[in-house]
Amino acid sequence: MTEAHAITLATVADAEVAARLQVDFAVEFETPTPAYEQLLPRFRALLAHSSAFVLLSGPPADPTGYAVVTLRPTVYCDGPLAVLDELYVVPSLRGGGIGTMLLRRAVDEVIARGGGEMHINVDEIDVDARRFYERHGFVNIEPGTDYRMLCYLRELDDRC
Q1: Do the Cβ atoms of 47 and 10 come closer than 8 Å?
Q2: Mean pLDDT over residues 132-157, rounded?
Q3: pTM, whole model, 2 decimals?
Q4: How many other CB atoms sit within 10 Å of the CB of residue 23?
Q5: Nearest-5° Cα angle at 17, 105 to 4
Q6: pLDDT tens digits for 16-49?
């Protein structure tokens, strides 16, 4: 395993790196995101809480990617339900296995924390991301059905 592929659990001390990666992700894909100054305290709080974790790939000073996972109770299984909120690999290193290693480690970490299911929201037009997740066993059609699952959103205030 090369240094670019080393996967570590982030700590509160890594909040600045995680916030920077989140901004990089949003800029690259032209998606709205809170400003770095807003993200930093949010990542600090997230990393300090047991209901979430962040994985970093590569050297801590110059990470090559990250994954953000949140956990919540659910009635559908005994352990928490996980949501992969973000998975990002710097553009120049895509296709080299870092995303796969981040995703596998995220799944392993959720299992280690007693999780029973993981959800991932993907834009319908992002065919590459959908194929990536499907290669790793994620589906948007549950076994025994012939229709896709959808995700509905509604922002409740301007804090997001």
Answers
A1: yes
A2: 92
A3: 0.93
A4: 15
A5: 50
A6: 999 999 999 999 999 889 999 999 999 999 999 9
Buried residues in 101-128 as b, exposed as e (16+ CB within 10 A): bbbebbbebbeeeebeebebebeeeeee
Give me 125's structure tokens.
């037009």
CA–CA distance, 71 with 22 (Å, rounded to integer): 19
Token couple for 91: 């553009």
Partners of 112 in the β-ladder: none
**Helix/strand/coil for 135:** helix
Tokens of 28: 């690259």
Burial (CB count <10 Å: 0-12, 13-18, 19+), residue 14: buried
> One-letter amino acid identity for 148?
R
Count of all residues that appear for the chain in the document: 160
Angle, helices 36-48 vs 15-29, to 10°: value is: 130
Q: What are the structure tokens assigned to 92, written together?
A: 């120049």
- For the stretch 105-133, pLDDT in tens is 999 999 999 999 999 999 999 999 999 99
* 43, 18 Cβ separation under 8 angstroms: yes
